[in-house]
Specification:
With 295 residues, the protein is α/β, with parallel strands linked by helices. Helices cover 29% and strands 31% of the residues.
């Protein structure tokens, strides 16, 4: 079996209110080594999460800090050396930028209309990806369902369960999660009222400079209205992270998909520290336009 090279990238777009006069513009880059026009992407470093790779490569190649949006189709194609390249893609909007500096890897960045971008792109699979971007909603907002990080063995904890803290592995997971969740931009944080859930979300909240709001609906032994509360948050049109328990994750994912018209995943459960990201579009009646799982 041929070796698979893992890579990640973004289709950066901007529209009215973000720098374009009218209609979306698409960012394409020129690579002098190959003399081609393509989108920002690059290899996933050993041990690097694919979300971080997509953001890092975009920053390195364009100088633009992206906010990841809708998941786009994964593209696979053969390399000249016999290996296979697999590229995971996301739609993305700029949230911050620096001056583009030409270098040996990328010597030009151009913002083009979709029609001009399609003409400029060197590869048919990039043109297909552009069409995928244009075929669905571009402006989306994340609703992230996060299971708390590792908190030791419940049976070994003799104090009230709501006070059970993260263990050493869980603290490391929470720190790593702050970096991953930041790929989706700033979001409000709603958490179970237990220490392990609040502590899982806290590193991200500190980084994003937002508060962690506790909600009994997402707490084990709480009100039992978790799905209704999640749907209310979804309708509120604000990017949101909900940190909760394994016992509630499956209920939330299943309920969200059924109510908003998305196919329920075969296995909606999550390991500790894992999360589902649903990208939502629409206002009065939000819909799930992509759903991705990260462990």
């Amino acid at each position: 079996m041929a070796e698979v090279v893992s890579a990640a990238g973004t289709l950066l777009w901007r529209g009215p209110g973000t720098g374009a006069a009218d209609g979306p513009e698409i960012a394409v880059i020129h690579r002098p080594r190959y003399d081609d026009w393509t989108f920002a992407k690059g290899k996933v470093d050993p041990g690097e999460h694919v979300l971080r790779a997509a953001v890092r490569e975009t920053v390195e190649e364009t100088g633009i800090v992206p906010r990841l949006g809708r998941r786009l189709p994964t593209v696979t194609y053969p390399l000249r050396d016999g290996r296979t390249k697999r590229v995971d893609w996301w739609a993305a909007e700029p949230v911050a930028s620096a001056s583009f500096t030409p270098n040996e890897e990328v010597d030009e960045l151009a913002w083009l209309t979709p029609a001009r971008a399609a003409e400029r792109l060197s590869y048919s699979h990039d043109v297909d990806l552009l069409h995928e971007l244009l075929a669905g909603p571009r402006a989306t907002r994340p609703l992230i369902i996060l299971r708390h990080a590792s908190a030791g063995e419940k049976r070994a904890w003799t104090e009230p369960d709501e006070l059970r803290p993260l263990d050493e592995r869980g603290r490391a997971q929470a720190t790593a999660l702050a970096d991953l969740l930041a790929c989706y931009g700033p979001a409000r944080v709603v958490s179970s009222a237990t220490a392990r859930c609040v502590d899982t979300a806290l590193p991200y909240a500190r980084r994003a400079r937002v508060t962690v709001t506790t909600d009994e609906a997402f707490t084990v032994g709480g009100t039992g209205a978790a799905v209704d509360r999640l749907l209310a948050l979804a309708a509120d049109r604000a990017p949101t992270i909900v940190c909760t328990h394994g016992e509630i994750v499956t209920e939330l994912v299943t309920g969200l998909c059924r109510e908003l018209g998305e196919k329920v995943p075969e296995d909606p459960a999550l390991p500790k520290g894992g999360f589902w990201t649903a990208q939502l579009a629409g206002e009065d009646a939000p819909a799930v336009v992509s759903l991705e799982r990260h462990d």
